[in-house]
Design brief:
Blueprint: H1 12-33, H2 42-70, H3 72-75, H4 78-92, H5 100-118, H6 136-145
Helix pairs in contact: 4-5
Length: 146
């Protein structure tokens, strides 16, 4: 399967739909053996609907568009930021406690994301100064203007 790469010619949406369908089929026996004893409340059902529509149906095509735009290695860096967003939402909406360990973890996530996309530590690397290219044509143009 890896050598022939049969999924390369399929659209991103078709691949994502196939992945979600296969996951549903695999998890269905587990779901059927663990059904709740009562019907969940309307709030729970709305939450599940929002998670399904926004966090899956909208997020997957957006994620694939990001990968198409910046490449797979840089596009997947956004998944590193998910825990930081979850913590920020927990602190602001659910009023969870923000600890020093959480802040350090957040800084490590940002540093790791930076390193994985740029490959350099900003304050330890010197910016490369580019020298303007001097050719005979540019010398002629400069002297003609003077």
């Amino acid at each position: 399967m890896l050598k022939n790469r049969p999924l390369v010619n399929l659209s991103r949406v078709a691949v994502a739909a196939g992945e979600c369908s296969i996951t549903t089929i695999v998890l269905l026996p587990l779901i059927l053996t663990r059904l709740p004893s009562r019907v969940p409340s309307a709030g729970v059902m709305v939450s599940l609907l929002i998670l399904g529509l926004i966090c899956t149906a909208l997020a997957l095509p957006t994620f694939f568009a990001l990968i198409a735009e910046v490449g797979a290695s840089r596009g997947t860096v956004i998944t590193y930021v998910n825990p930081a967003v979850s913590v920020l939402l927990g602190v602001t909406i659910l009023r969870e406690q923000l600890t020093i360990a959480t802040i350090v973890g957040f800084l490590l996530i940002i540093a790791g994301s930076w390193l994985s996309t740029t490959g350099a530590i900003p304050f330890l690397t010197r910016p490369k100064l580019t020298q303007p290219e001097v050719t005979i044509d540019t010398l002629v143009e400069t002297s003609a203007r003077e």
